[in-house]
Protein 1
Amino acid sequence: MRKPIIAGNWKMNKTVEESIALSNGIKRDLFDIDNIEIVLCPPFTSLTDVSDVITDTNISLGAQNMFWETKGAYTGEIAPDMLKHVGCKYVIIGHSERRAYFGETNETVNKKVKTALKEGLLPIMCVGERLEERESQKTFDVISEHVKKGLADIGKKEILSMVIAYEPVWAIGTGKNATPDQAQEVHKFIRDILAKKYGEKISEEIRIQYGGSVKPDNIESLIKEKDIDGALVGGASLKEESFIGIVKKSSEAVKEK
Ligand code: PEP
């Protein structure tokens, strides 16, 4: 059975002091959760301090981005090895905000995924359609392209180290989450693409998270869906109470799945 994964993407929020306080609170309240993988993705400046807080706990560290080269004259970029050295296990790649504001494409996402895997980081690769694409019935075309191009040249062994995050752009930060049916439909579509490329057995092992306005009061119905294996949480991961609520409710809900 796939172990669900809940990751908090803090985006460009939290000073070092605030990050330490938030991660300490989360650690205190979630120490006994063992059926959900918990990941915190603070900004780069807080990675070292959050890593210290969560060392030897049930919480893993993730970064929000990285560059596809491993070192050199790339002012302002961060290499995968640097992330590993501060304790990162995961790295979010191709978040819609990076695609929208920083020119990331399926091709750059693929380069980053390949480098992350080669350097021993586990990519959380984000895919998702924009509102106008959903409204013009292009959702499945967009998702198919994001998944296939993002995973170009990724082999069977490597895909098992990855998490896919389905994040409809119209649901991110809008308070309007996809319904469980809408999300399940796309998750199943993604799993079918994975099955065609990697075989049924492998596709059943790959975790597909949902992201987009996840809150304590909507996580249960989402995570109960067959192909929804957790959540990538933005806004609600910035407050101790709401992130803890999401993880605890998930933990209970998956016992009945
Ligand atoms: C995200 O940015 O990955 C996200 C899902 O944000 P929010 O939960 O705020 O919609």
Protein 2
Amino acid sequence: MKEIYTFADLQDWRKAGGRAKPPIRLGLVGSPVAHSLSPQIQNAALKEAGIAMGYTRFEIAPEELQGALEILSALDFVGVNLTVPHKIPALAFVDEMDETARKIGAINTLKIEGGKLRAFNTDGRGFARAIREEFSVDLRDLRILVLGAGGAARAIALQCAKENCERLVIANRDVVKANALCEQLREFFAGPRVLGPVSRLQATGLDEAASRFQIANVDLLVNATPLGLRRRDALPITARLLAPHLMVYDTVYARGETALVSEARAAGARAANGLSMLLHQGALAYEIWFERSAPLDAMRNALRS
Ligand code: NAP
């Protein structure tokens, strides 16, 4: 099995990947995909479960996506994960979509059944499981500030809303997008919870003054922007606003600490990076493909090794 296959490989699959042992029936479709840890996690799960299939990476450009999905479907793949830049454009090529994926407007998992593409988004539920694992709390008990209003933020915010969190604030550089997301979630916050002077659902900008006020009125801070992926990135929030009462979850993942996690811990807060969300959204994808529980310990060990 090669590390990465291309669209040209898919077009000539019999030669390029068709003879791999175990046969490749799953993969990650995106660009770039070289750094992804998903093959490590999923291949460990397949091995542990005794399923004779392989999971690989497909480097696919936007203009190749439709063709790639058609070929994967014809080749009898079980499914694929989708990553940047395909999570939204892929919506145009699927046959069915679950309600969560429809609400989020982005997908990260496809199941291929009888030539039909069924779409799911496991980011929100993966996030909820990660928060439980990292901080031993449920979303429903928390006041939550989400930084970002893109695909990951929408999945996380919808999950927080569905689990009836105490309070939800969406802070985004483009506040129009934060407002639009709040409007979409308003129906979940109609209940009679009383929390003093602050609103249960609120949109705001990412500026320091707005963030200072919000930080004082939340328990969990979530970075769902890509800030932190590159070493030279600024922090998504000013370090001096980080405070000991916070739990900080950075959806960006790294071996070791991200800059946000380091700053949060230095400020006395509890903090974790996005590896646990990666693990759990991957486990949920496995559960969709194989309709059985994922071997979580094997997947976690693969991620750590
Ligand atoms: P996306 O749809 O492109 O959204 C990116 C969001 O970040 C937008 O709200 C954008 O704000 C904001 N943003 C981008 N650059 C910014 C900057 N320089 N300063 C301030 N805000 C900025 O991306 P996505 O799919 O949501 O993914 C976001 C990140 O989530 C990924 O990079 C990844 O690290 C993480 N993620 C992790 C997992 C996991 O399993 N751990 C899963 C999914 C995603 P505007 O609206 O103003 O442009």
